[in-house]
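Dear U.,

Please find below the material for section 3 of the report. The protein was modelled together with flavin mononucleotide; I have listed the sequence and SMILES used, followed by the predicted complex structure.
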Amino acid sequence: MRITLLDTLAPDPNAPTVHDVIAELGDVTTHPLGAERFGPCEGCFECWVAHPGTCKAKDDANRIMRDWASADEVVWRVTPFLGGWSSAAKRALDKCIGLILPFFTTVDGETHHKARYARLPRLGVVAEVDAEVPDVERARFAHLVGRNALNLGAPHPWVAWVRRGAPVAEVRAAVAAARAAPDPGFPAQPPFVEPVSCGVPAGPTPRRVLLVVGSAKTGEQSTSSALGHAVLARLQARGWATAELDLPRVVKLGRPDMSELQEAVANADLVVLAFPVYFDSLPALVTAAFERLRPRFGGPALLPVVQCGFPELAHTVVALELCAAAAARLGFAWAGHLALGGAGPLRDAPLHEARGVAWRQVQALDRAAAELDAGGPVTGATGDLFSTPMMPAGFYRLAGDLGWLAGAFQHGALTALLARPFEPGTESPPG
Ligand SMILES: Cc1cc2nc3c(=O)[nH]c(=O)nc-3n(C[C@H](O)[C@H](O)[C@H](O)COP(=O)(O)O)c2cc1C
């Protein structure tokens, strides 16, 4: 059996390693992800429509996709963060959407992507931790891995929890038990349960709002940025002082310094965090920001504004849960949330007046600003209005599929759309 081991953790010379246990299962190709280079995924989708199956970046993304596509099983070694992927893992995972096709399919009524490769390796994770992990985080992580596996077409995912430095027999037993456990099946997504919301803490005026954009999109304006600025403009019109930061500029994935973000957050009453869903959860940049921000008593309020490509709202839930967990850890108040599935049409929608397909979203943005200005959280009713689908899911999927064809045509890549550049036996493209 061929195994690709994606190792996000530093080698530990004193402990019997997970590597030994995984090596007992088959021939292992290891990627020490800490030593490899990754820029954040820019969400350009060129790996779907311009050079299908390969990433344009000159980092290690293509090597990972090559070894993923030729494996029977892909195993991660990772320390989960708040029940989600760590940024060390996410920066690599986010670069791997070239492994699937852009085209939509449905699984139990939910939208997902079609597989690019015929071979669909199993997905496993050795979650190595040195502190007790709350049950809620363990459950969230298992659920997230299940949903990732669903999107990647990976059968029978597993997660083994092991103590750092545990004896090899313990690691072996945990991995064997996780791999032999019954297939958890379709990981249905229950709705997001909002934490107790308290709005924006009282303080001197003008109130200060910081927009943090968590998309690394370049070239065209990101949907996250458009939505975040729509909130910002409304609060500014109500007399709020505004500031904004783009995470790709202030968070470097390989470097820990984040003083600019830390300072900007310390000077805000409200942080509007606008970001896309990547692989069922937070993008690497947002994860890195949450990992590295220092907790503070009496921090600002957090308003996540999250949107995603699939039409169902369910795809935003894990990301929202991770935001809520991060807010609790960092001492942020919770100011409600705005979440939307099927956000594609927002790219061309006017967000200053309630017309066109996004009229409900515009109304909700107006209401959200009024609620925040009154000191309260964004209410569930406003959140529900914002989440109202802009069009039926079937129509969205059809329009999306046609959009990918048009995009590939524009890039002269129509005939290569279904390419399998890393199929074993194929000469790999450079990179
Ligand atoms: C690497 C990557 C992973 C993605 N994963 C998901 C996903 O799991 N579920 C989903 O609904 N959309 C997913 N999307 C789609 C984005 O959420 C969607 O395109 C979003 O509108 C992009 O926002 P932006 O323009 O602010 O970057 C993914 C996009 C990329 C680039």
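For the text of the report, you could mention the following: The CA atoms of residues 50 and 411 lie 5 Å apart.

Regards,
Y.
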